[in-house]
Amino acid sequence: MANLEIDFRGIKSPNPFWLASAPPANSAYQVQKAFEQGWGGAVWKTIGAPVLNVCNRYGTIDYKGQKIIGLNNVELISDRPIDLNLKEIAEVKRNFPNHAVVVSVMVESKKEVWQETIKRAEETGCDGFELNFGCPHGMSERGMGSAMGQVPEYTCMVTEWVMEAATKPVIVKLTPNITDIVQPARAAVRGGATAISLINTINSIMGVDLDTFELRPNVGGKGGHGGYAGPAVKPIALHLLSAVASDPEVQKAGLAISGMGGIETWQDAVEFMLLGSTSVQVCTAVMHWGFRIVEDMIEGMSNWMDDKGFKSCNDFIGKSLPRISNFGDFDLGFQSVAKINHDKCIQCNLCFIACNDAAHQCIDLKDAKITKEANERLWPVVREVDCVGCALCSTVCPVDDCITMVQIDTGRPHTTWNEIMKSKPEVTQDWQKMEEYRKTANIHVH
Amino acid sequence: MTLEERFQEVYPPLEEREAVTEANRCLYCYDAPCMVACPTHIDIPTFIRKISTGNVKGSARTILESNLMGATCSRVCPVQELCEGACVLEHDHKPIMIGRLQRYAMDYAAERGIKFFEKGKSNGLKIAVVGGGPAGLSCAGELVKLGFDVTVYEKKKWANGLSTYGIVVFREPVEVALAEAKMIEDMGVEIKTNVTIGKDITLDELVEQNDAVFVSVGLGNVPDMGVPGENLPGVLDGLDFIEETKVQNLDSIKFGNRICVIGAGNTAIDCATIARRLGSERVNIIYRRSEAEMPAYHFEYEFALREGVSFMFLTLPVEVVGNGKVEGLKCVRMDLGEPDASGRRSPIAIPGSEFVIPCDMVIKAIGQKKQTPMMEALSKYGVKDIKGYIAVDFTTNRTVHPKIFAGGDCIRSHGEASTVMAVQDGKIAAKAIYRQLVGEQEDKSEHAKSGCCKEVAGTHAH
Ligand SMILES: Cc1cc2nc3c(=O)[nH]c(=O)nc-3n(C[C@H](O)[C@H](O)[C@H](O)COP(=O)(O)OP(=O)(O)OC[C@H]3O[C@@H](n4cnc5c(N)ncnc54)[C@H](O)[C@@H]3O)c2cc1C
Ligand SMILES: Cc1cc2nc3c(=O)[nH]c(=O)nc-3n(C[C@H](O)[C@H](O)[C@H](O)COP(=O)(O)O)c2cc1C
Ligand code: SF4
Ligand code: SF4
Ligand code: SF4
User: Which end of chain A has a smaller Cβ tally under 10 Å, C or N?
Assistant: First the structure.
């Protein structure tokens, strides 16, 4: 069986699965129960300044019968006294010396307060810190959380304060509520951080009640922006992760990355790790299903590694990063066309209407006897010469492997937009020239 | 449809997309009622979730950890009465297809030849298992995991008891039953076939030479009806009839054109539906009580009706008529009287109502004989019987003799006999044998481990 142990820049963990700093990691009872069931580590629910919570702090999105594909919250950091949290953190670390226990911290922007809190937290025996520069609600109004994380200078400054005081690894947790995530990531590098984690929750309004016109969640008649998480945010998290992980400055500094945002299964976790994350953190999925999901996460990842011949996580962490590229470097010569397997086609004709209304009108409905069982209904048939290879039809087809996009050889030269810009800048400036170029390159539009 | 096609499994396997879609419908209940209702307590929500995440190998492991006969059970269990009947989605809409999802995971592992368990570190203790059916194989498999040296003695040519010889092929192909037995062998159990205990080796020898003996001989063939004409050619034992369809070429099987099947349990249904699928024109099930008292499961009854089987209730066979071969079955009509000892209203013959059903074959399916010679051999050890079934303590499946344990159909003096119950019997006995021979010591540590979490919960809950 594959070895799932990780070394996260000095923080050791029996497997990459950590609880994110959030309600599931709120107390010794919970974290110990999670460790019992297999979780490799936990980032304790953020400790810091005194806070008060409101009721109806969670709002959720269900999608076509599936519950909670997204969850938002207007919850604050831990509302339990800091002394109690520190006592329990020490207790957990004592009971589970081989598990990763990371303390998430957020305090007001004063050097003494940060350094004092970090020193007190270190006395618990914890393995490291995570600096919460991400909370988008409640704390930001008080000048903490994302109010810090959205200003790279502040991020850098606080990171430096903490690095002065800390003897353990320090993770800077980034907010996604910013135009370019690479900026605060570089600020963390400049501040001397050991690692980065992302993403915290995304600003969101969950919805409006059509009967009462109230916002959801409804806090006594009022509502507002809250932090969005859960399966629905995964693609955004993957993008931000890959942007940070492939940034040369982050790479050069050798920072470890802990990824999160919508992880629910071992498959999600593998994707994050292929894009450069060494550990993964989970909140919403645990809020939905409980700690027990980790058994399948561990086993599923381990079985997958065995199948692929990976002995340890390092064998695959970041393996997909080199494939990340920019539009300007994509091959314009690559062409595929849609092929419908009529033995599989159930004649729902969704491909036809999608191509006809939204793509390039190159699927026809024909009453051909395409198969032995041909019935009265018309069959979708691709006019391959006209197909632009957009792939819409294959994505709407409800049958597995029925419409496949097949690469064809058109004799087009391999070229990229960047190359054209260099060699034939006029093509990129003038439609007339563009038309001419297309003819020579055998690229048709209609 | 060709004969072969008619003897394919009734339900086709689930395709990947179907399985994943169905798995995603499962709510992943906590402390799930489906799991409680499964006699072997398979962690159903977990194995289903693993199908939904594509961890099908892990799913198969979860199933086999609780039930080594998971492949057979996924096909033959009365799921409507067990797991699926308890599913929380049963109340307002359709329960999850637990059985078919289980089969999906079992097939996945079998097709890829994945091996999950091996022999534990040997503890030098020897166990003999008498009878290689589901109960015996389950017990043997659990014991070998714990490090015992286990030998299974099976009188037939092939192992896995009624799964191999008694379950109709369109419920379970022979290959599935044999592969299951092979899996147990691969774990390190020695299976000696063509060995009858009581003939080739005595029970005494086994008790003497082993540290414990697990008796799982099942039941015997169909008993006599005690009516005239019973010995005419054309009167068949239902179990033999089913066995032929499992071990012979389908087109070499003789079947009648008009068949009377006597009895209305699941065996009768199996015989009747096989006969229809082989090509019999008319198949009548003859039962002396009414539809309400019929022991066959309701879904089996419906299946038989769909297969074109006719039912004659409140009809008692009194004689097989014929000259040198079966020509008809003489029956008498019945009325329902007062409830009898079984709580069912007892049938009373209506005088003068005799009539003859013309037929060319009669199949007896009125139950199974007790294993009397085995019972006699056991009684020497003080082992008692209950109506011919071996008496055991149900928490350990131990007989009064400390070395002798028993399980499966041969102890099922009340309640439904089924494969999954036999599997659980094997597990219970294996655990008790381990406790008795290896001791509580190690067992305790195992308990402490799983109990630890609860302790934490107790001290820290707020
Ligand atoms: C026709 C029929 C259909 C059934 N359908 C279903 C169904 O759909 N679902 C379900 O759950 N259950 C069904 N059952 C019941 C199920 O098959 C049994 O409950 C189950 O097989 C019991 O397992 P067992 O190990 O106790 O006995 P068996 O399966 O009977 O195995 C006992 C084994 O012991 C061997 N043996 C006996 N005596 C000796 C000896 N002296 N020495 C050596 N070996 C010996 C036998 O050859 C046999 O292999 C059906 C039963 C029948 C008869
Ligand atoms: C209810 C709730 C409370 C949270 N509280 C915190 C917190 O105190 N500190 C923090 O750094 N992140 C907090 N988060 C963010 C999570 O740690 C995590 O970054 C985010 O939920 C994305 O992961 P997920 O999709 O697995 O939920 C919270 C999230 C939720 C849903
Ligand atoms: S969408 Fe797929 S199944 Fe439906 S008509 Fe098109 S090819 Fe056939
Ligand atoms: S790939 Fe796009 S253009 Fe081609 S047939 Fe499909 S939908 Fe139409
Ligand atoms: S009871 Fe039904 S829904 Fe709940 S876990 Fe079991 S199969 Fe799934």
Answer: C
Average confidence (pLDDT) over A416-440 = 94
CA distance B149 to B126: 5
Cβ distance A371 to A381 under 8 Å? Answer: no
Helices (H), A223-343: 234-245, 248-253, 266-274, 284-289, 294-308
pLDDT at A372: 66
> Is this structure's pTM higher than 0.95?
no
For chain A, report the end-to-end CA distance as a whole number of angstroms: 54
**Who among A27, A33, A303 is closest to B57 (CB)?**
A303
**C-alpha to C-alpha distance for B455 and A36, rounded to whole angstroms:** 11
B363 touches B259 (CB < 8 A): yes
B22-79 pLDDT tens trace = 999 999 999 999 999 999 999 999 999 999 999 999 999 999 999 999 999 999 999 9
Cβ < 6 A, ligand 5 pocket: B 26-29, 32-34, 44-45, 48, 87-89, 96, 98
In percent, the amount of chain A with pLDDT more than 70 equals: 98
Contact (CB, 8 A) for B292 and B313 = no
- The neighbouring-strand residues paired with B214 are B129, B405
* DSSP string over B423-459: HHHHHHHHHHHHHHHH-HHHHHHHHHHHHHHHHHHHH
Of the candidates A55, A126, A135, A345, the residue annotated as catalytic is A135
Closest CA to B186 of B146, B144, B156: B144
pLDDT tens, position by position, A236-278? 999 999 999 999 999 999 999 999 999 999 999 999 999 999 9
Is A135 noted as a catalytic residue in this protein? yes
ipTM > 0.95 (yes/no): no
CB contact under 8 A, A266 and B55: yes
Q: What is the largest CA-CA distance in chain B?
A: 83
CA distances from B212 to A117, A206, B129, B204, B398 (A): 64, 65, 9, 12, 10
Residue A53's identity, in one-letter code, is N
Among residues 386-405 of chain A, which lie with CB inside 8 Å of chain B?
400
Residue A171's SS3 state is strand
